[in-house]
Structures are given as structure tokens and as C-alpha cells.
Amino acid sequence: MIKLAKPHISGKAIEKVVEVLKSGNLVQGKYVEEFENALCDYLNVKNAIVVSSGTAALHLALLALEIKEGDEVIVPAFTFPATANVVEVVGAKPVFVDINLSDFCIDTSKIEEAITKRTKAIMPVHEFGQAAKMDEIVKIANHYNLKIAEDAACALGAEFENQKVGTFGELGCFSFHPRKAITTGEGGVVVTSDDELAQKINVLRNHGISYKDGKVDFIAAGLNYRMTDFQAILGICQLEDIDNIIIQRIETANKYNNELKKTNWIKTPHVYENRKMVYQTYHVLLDDDKDRDKLVDYLKSKEIESNLGAQALPCLTYYKTKYKLKESDFPNAVNAYKQGLALPMGDHVTTEDITYISNTLKTMFSG
Ligand SMILES: *Cc1c(COP(=O)(O)O)cnc(C)c1O
Fold first, then answer.
1. Which residue in 67, 110, 179, 321 has the fewest CB atoms around it within 10 Å?
2. For strand 171-175 and strand 147-151, is the pairing parallel, antiparallel, or unpaired?
3. DSSP assignment string, 6-67
4. Mind listing the pLDDT tens digit for each residue in 252-266?
5. DSSP reduced 3-state for 158
6. What pLDDT, on the 0 to 100 scale, is given for residue 213?
7. Interval 297-310: pLDDT, tens
């Protein structure tokens, strides 16, 4: 079976993890801080706070911004549910905005009509590793005095106009789940140039503890969202390889694009001049008359793993029921949910695999 994704862990990384395990310093050692410094350098941002998952990062971002009951947060209608779930968890209301079918990110022309007196923040998602239109989002946020918490969970290294995503808003959140370009097993990070927000997140990550003037005090109702040291050393080793990982992913995507460009019922990812796409997922859109789920089964019978790309949140039982959402208000999100297809991506996918996958796809509907 050609897997959809497969983490790449180098021999060196494994050795380093074993070293940490043998040292006995499993938490709150030196590697968490080292990983944070490496992330700051890579993203060109002042503060990085590594945490136990991408979802923990998003949760802490909203807590730090003091988003709470009565507040609204604008979220794209097509994403991984964690984006909206954290809004629910802090007691606020996610307000869904439809996406574009060209970048699968929030349609910035529809944000303003979703803003109310209660709106506090926008959470753009850089879906599949494609940057959302950050120039427009920053403009709107400034005009309406809204905060931006970027869900860059699957977009480490992606850029909008030569600036890395996750660094446009007050806060940026990333995931190191094995499906992402670099992994620590479970893991994530919040980045920010705002020292005060960074300090708040630091405290909230660690039970609300403050160490001011050598004294331990509890100054907030915090959580334990810390990352272990053996995960951090794994992250450090993985981050050393990220440039190569991204180059390889772009090459793989280009090969797919080339193989599939003449297949008129498959729309390959749009390439923008002013954005750097890192292809966390290689995601294509099928014509409406093609049965995506049947295609997934067919590919499976040919030893190719594939899947839908992301969820249309207004179609999910929880959100649909709670907010009485109409699917017809989010046509693009629903279309991407029904007709989107994620194909194998990563350094386990060979050129021969890409040709095989593309040819298999093409034969499915050839009669
Ligand atoms: C992966 C992902 C998350 C969740 O990250 P975890 O580390 O699995 O908690 C959230 N949002 C998006 C867009 C993601 O791709």
C-alpha cells in the first residue's frame, strides 16, 4: 500500500532521542528551549512556546487573547475541526466563512459580512500548506480592531509574499503531528512577537506557575500542555531537514501536476506567484459528477491510500445542530468536502509511484 503520509525519522534523530531517554531528563530539560530557539530562527519571530499538540497551541492562543463566552471568532468553513473546537472549548462562538476553491482557504471577500459587535478574532487556516490571503486578512483585522490567531498547523515553512505564515497575526499555531512535514509524535508550537502574550502562554502551558524573583506562585488557572524533552530533540533534528523536506514535497507536487494536467475532471492545486505552498497535503478537486468515495475505494483496491482532504464544518453533526447551519450557505466548503481528494505525499512516494497513482486515477473513469 502506498501510504498517504509517512513520517521520516533519521537514524541520527533516533540516536539523539535514545540519548535523552537514557539521561533520565524527560521533561523540562534543555532541549525544549533549544527547539524553541531553533523555531524562532526558522520563522524569524521573537517568541516560540512549544506545547503538546497543535490543538493545545490553538487553545492557548485563544486563552491568551482572552476569548470567552459571548465572543465570536471567524473561522473558515473548511478545515480540520480542531480550529473551531477550541473556540467552543473557551465558550465562544465560531462563525464560519466559506472558502475559495482555488486555495481552499477562507474567502476574504466574505469576512466583512460575518463581522458583528461580538467578533473578537479571525482564525485563518493555511489549508494543506497553502498560505491564506494574509494581506487582506491583516487589512480587515486592522480596520475592525480584531486579533488574528493563525492556524498554521499544517503549513510550517509556507509563505505569503516572502513572509512565513504564522507570523502575520498576534499569534501563530503549528502542529508536529506525524501527518505534518516535521513531527515530534504529538506536538505543537505557538509563536508571537508580543512578549506579553508569550509570557501568558508560558504560564498557561505550565499549570499557571510563575517563577518571579525565585519564588513559585500560581497566577492563572493553567494547564499542562508541555512538550517532553525527547520530543523536543526529535523536533530539533527534524527542523534541520525542513528545507530539503519542503523542496522534495514541491518536486513531488510538480510531478503530480504534470501527470494530471491533461485529465480534465481533476483540478490540480493552484500555484500562486506570491505564495510558497509547502504541500502538507497534495489535494485535488474532482468534477461534481465523479464519485470521490468510490474513487477512494478503487484506489485502495490498487494499493493506493487516499482520503478526503478536510471537513466542511457546517456539515458536521455538532456544528450543524448547534448553530442550525445550512450547507447551501457554504457551497465551496461543501464542494471541497465532497469532491476533494488527498493523494500520497512525502519522501516515501517515488517518481514511479506518482506515475502509477496518476495512471490509476485516469483509468477509473475511462469506461
Ligand atoms: C493538524 C491540524 C490541527 C491539529 O493539530 P494536532 O497537532 O493534531 O492537534 C489543527 N488545524 C489544522 C488545520 C491541522 O491541519
1. 321
2. parallel
3. -----HHHHHHHHHHHHHS--BSSSHHHHHHHHHHHHHT-SEEEEES-HHHHHHHHHHHTT-
4. 999 999 999 989 999
5. coil
6. 87
7. 999 999 999 999 99
Percent of the chain whose pLDDT exceeds 90:
96
Distance 40 CA to ligand 1 centre (A): 20
User: Nearest C-alpha to atom 15 of ligand 1 is from which residue?
Assistant: 154
Cell readout for 320 is 450543524
Between the CA of 56 and the centroid of ligand 1 the distance, in Å, is: 9
Q: Which of 251, 305, 276, 309 is nearest to 127 (CA)?
A: 309
Rounded CA-CA distance 56/224 in Å is 10
Nearest CA residue ID for atom 2, ligand 1: 153
What band does 276 get if pLDDT is binned at 50, 70 and 90?
very high
**CA torsion sign, 343 to 4 to 314 to 125?**
negative
Instruction: List pocket residues of ligand 1, CB cut-off 6 Å.
Output: 53-55, 79-80, 82-83, 125, 151, 153-154, 175, 177, 188
How far apart are the CA of 53 and the centre of ligand 1, in A?
Answer: 8
Which residue's C-alpha comes closest to atom 1 of ligand 1? 153
Give the integer Cα–Cα distance in Å for 246 and 278: 6
**Backbone dihedral angles phi then psi of residue 324, each to the nearest 5 degrees:** 45, 55
- Quick one: pLDDT at residue 356? 97
Choose one of 173, 177, 311 to mutate for the ligand 1 pocket test, by most ligand atoms within 8 angstroms of C-beta. Answer: 177
Q: Which residues is 311 bridged to in the sheet?
A: 79
Q: Assess whether pLDDT exceeds 80 at residue 367.
A: no
pLDDT for residue 21 is more than 70: yes
Residue nearest atom 14 in ligand 1 by C-alpha distance: 153
Q: Indicate the average pLDDT of the chain.
A: 97
C-alpha grid cell for residue 199?
509570557
Task: Name the band, by pLDDT with cuts 50, 70 and 90, for residue 182.
Answer: very high
* The predicted structure's pLDDT at residue 56: 98
User: pTM for this structure?
Assistant: 0.97
Ligand 1 centroid distance, CA of 281 (Å): 12
